[in-house]
Amino acid sequence: MRLNRFGVVAAALFVAASLPLAAQDRLKSMPGYDRYMQMLPKIQGAIKPGVAAAQWADDGKSFDFLRDGKRLRFDLTTKQVGDAPAGAANAGDARRFGGPARGRQATVAWTADSSRKAFYKDRNL
User: Fold this and answer.
1) Does 29 share its domain with 65?
2) Is residue 125 part of a domain?
């Protein structure tokens, strides 16, 4: 009796395991499969995941962002992407745009009008 029960369980597991294989065989006959296989190489590199940390420019008509480690500016009036002008980052953007690494502190910070400088030395301001 025990052997008979084992045989029934083994047969049920075999049938259950072979059902998904039959479903995969039908996939190739479904509508749109040929188009999917044609587009598959193009789909894989279409989306580049990441976070876009943008900073509005002073004129309010453009913003700066990073792409592949390079600072770029998107102009909303012309809808064009170009290189951001040198020194376009504010002091608050230091961590996002080429400042010290995470967990580190900048050694120098200028005021917004560049009239005063604060420096960091031996853990004192």
Assistant:
1) no
2) no
